[in-house]
Amino acid sequence: NMSTSVDRNEVIAGTAAGVAVILVKHPSDTVKTLLQLSKQSGSKMWPVVQNTWQTAGWKGFFRGVAGPLATVPLVNAVVFGAYGYARRWLGHTDPNELTLGQLALCGAWAGFVNCAVVGPIELVKTQMQQQLIQPGVRSKNSLHYTYHILKTEGPRAL
Predict the structure, then answer these.
(1) Of 33, 106, 107, which is closest to residue 68 (Cα–Cα)?
(2) CA pair distance 21, 19, nearest whole angstrom
(3) Which among 71, 70, 34 has a CA at the least distance from the CA of 50?
(4) What is the dihedral sign for C-alpha 90, 91, 93, 98?
(5) What separation in angstroms does the CA of 33 have from each of 38, 48, 61, 63, 128?
(6) Cα–Cα distance for residue pair 70/62, rounded to 1 Å
(7) How far apart are CA 71 and CA 101, in angstroms?
(8) Residues 21-48: tens digit of each pLDDT
(9) Whole-number mean pLDDT of the chain?
(10) Closest CA to 90 of 70, 113, 68, 108
(11) How far is CA 42 from the centre of its chain?
(12) Sign of the C-alpha dihedral computed for residues 69, 73, 76 and 82 taken in this order
């Protein structure tokens, strides 16, 4: 059966990959964000790490993990599924049957789908982080800010 539907195993694998990425990456992303938002020019990484550890313990490195943990696994599931869908659309159930060109085409399709999904998420995340250092109105959360963008600028703004 040369089904072009999304394979459940690809979705599960993508979800698991997304969870693993966030759990491994989030502590360094937290430190990076704290460095970027620091008002002291020339802030160094180790003092930020030490301060975070002293003030919040290991949980401090996972501050704000809920949003990415809710979205990144879903995005990865979509990307893994898009790759598998493209592979089956080309008529291959075994990834080892793909030529280099077909492999690149499947990867490019998955990348395109990734951009279409991640672009709006990254826009909202970046705008929310920017609100931390800019005076003015603050959005309650990411969903509230997404609604604000849709209401004031329309869907094309995402």
Answers:
(1) 33
(2) 6
(3) 34
(4) negative
(5) 8, 10, 11, 11, 12
(6) 14
(7) 31
(8) 999 998 898 888 888 877 666 678 888 8
(9) 83
(10) 108
(11) 28
(12) negative
